[in-house]
Structures are given as C-alpha cells and as structure tokens.
C-alpha cells in the first residue's frame, strides 16, 4: 500500500487541480488546505482563519483541566455527555455544537488525542478494501468525500495524495482485480489499474518487480494530532465544555437521564508542589504561578514509560498511571432529558 509522493493532478468537479501534493511537507514553506498545497505567500488569504480561536478567545489562562466556560443547564445537568475526546468523540461534540444542546466532553487522559487516535496511521481511505455490506463499506467512501470540505473549515492539513496498492506479477494482480470489483460494489469512484510508464511516473521509487497497481486518486493523509485538536478546539469555541483528566468509574440510569461518576486526577508531582492549597487545581502551564520556560516544567515521568493495553483504554501515554497521577476529587455528572413540548 503506497501513498505516492508525486501524485498526478487530481480532478475535482471535472476541473483539473494543479495544486495536488507533490511531496511538500505541511507547515514547511506552505500548508495544505482542502487537500491542496498553498505556498507560504498564499497562506494569509487561504489558510489563516479570520474569526477563529486566536481572535475570539481572551489571552488569559484557562482553569486547570477544563475550559473557561460551562455548558451546564441551570440545574447543573447536560443534554449530552461525550465520553472520550479522540477524533470520534471530538467530531461528535463538534456536530452537536451546531445545535442548541448543552454538551460536555470528558477525557480520561491529560489531553485530547492521547489514545487510539494518536496511534492512527493518518490515512483517509477511499473504501475499496472494506467488506461489502459492512458499516465501513457503507460509510468509508462517503466520509472520504467529506474531508476536503471539512479541512476547508478547520485547516488541519489534509493532503489529497492518492494511493497505490502495488502488485508484483500476475498472481498478485488478480487481487487488484478483486479490489477493483469490491470498490465498485462499495460505490467507490475513480478507481483504475495502472501499469508501465504511468505507474513509474506516479511513484519512481517502486520495487523493480512491481508490475501494476490499483490507483485511487481520492485517498489522502492527515496528521492525527492536528485533526483531533482542530475538532475539539472548534467544538469548544462553539460552546462545548471540555474536561480532561476525568476517568469514568460508573454510569447509572436515572428516571430522566444518566448519572456519570468520574474521578478527576492530576499528576502527583504537580499536586505535591501545590500542597493541595486553595488554588490546588490552579491553571494550565503558563497560568498564575506556573510561568517559566518549558525546560523547567516539573518532570512528570522518570525513566522508561511503558504503556499497556489497559492504559490505552483510558488515555494511553497521557493516562493517570502513565503520568503518575492521583485522584484529587470525585465528580457526579448528570444528563437530563427535557420532556417533549
């Protein structure tokens, strides 16, 4: 499976687009917007987002481990609580921020994108290899086609690279035909098998034994961190409350919604440095009493950091155990379903 570093010009709406990736690195001399490369001198007009977080958020420190604002209703409950602030949770929260619902998103780790999202390959697949009839097969192509517009909104560096599934010899080429047929069944468009000089032009560094490849011009790549952060940040900008370092201990059904029991943790060295004073939950690094260069920030983890599967379920390398955390308070979070009018 190859992502060509010299993808041919892709087609969008029937118009040849000369800005397709030619191997440029996002953030070095330019940026990708909606799948296509924009040079640095074009970024002020095409990449910078007017009215974004950098303009609307006051230059003051956030409360530690939570957003400045609360989305709670008058009685302290929420319409929706999203558990987990990876790319899926953050995307759900962002969509909900388009509504009038009061939404809280909680994350067990010390930041968004610390679990499975961080370990993601960053490939936006076209959907030709998914089992026909599966949920993935039904949604992959549709989701793929939404990414350029999503990046036009959020600017997380989506690159429309295209992809090649490469075969060596006639026997492996049979698999390409199977994938081509499966892609057609899944509704994936623009697939074709390429050979010879055209294939070498797309990817000059292929093994000499390569004889053919299935080309999907619609596959792309992104940086999981930037994608996840953009979703969560945009959700917060539009009213979603976010709390990190919250481990869900239990969920109970109530007569009008749910009650979530959560443990709020903080790194032990930080808690000890604060001595649990009245401002123990303080501010993020850079806030009151936490100024100073990054290299003087307290060392939270000493020695080798080992991450288990159980850690990945509750925050990965940013989990309470991995960060030597301790529980500082217990929280009860309620959702309440308002009666229909």
Q: How much strand content do the residues show?
A: 15-25%
Spatially, the strands of the biggest sheet line up as 5-6-12
Q: Largest beta sheet, briefly?
A: 3 strands, parallel
Low-confidence residue ranges: 5-19, 278-303
Number of helices: 9
- Please tally the β strands and state the result: 15
Overall mean pLDDT? 83
Helix/strand-derived category reads alpha+beta
Itemize the secondary structure elements and their pairings.
Blueprint: E1 10-12, E2 15-17, E3 30-33, E4 36-39, H1 40-46, H2 53-56, E5 80-83, H3 87-96, E6 103-106, E7 123-124, H4 135-154, E8 163-167, H5 170-185, E9 192-195, H6 196-202, E10 212-216, E11 220-221, H7 224-237, E12 241-243, E13 246-253, E14 257-267, H8 268-274, H9 309-313, E15 325-336
Parallel strand pairs: 5-6, 6-12
Antiparallel strand pairs: 1-2, 3-4, 7-11, 8-10, 9-10, 13-14, 14-15
Helix pairs in contact: 3-7
Protein name: FAD dependent oxidoreductase domain-containing protein
Domain FAD dependent oxidoreductase: 79-256
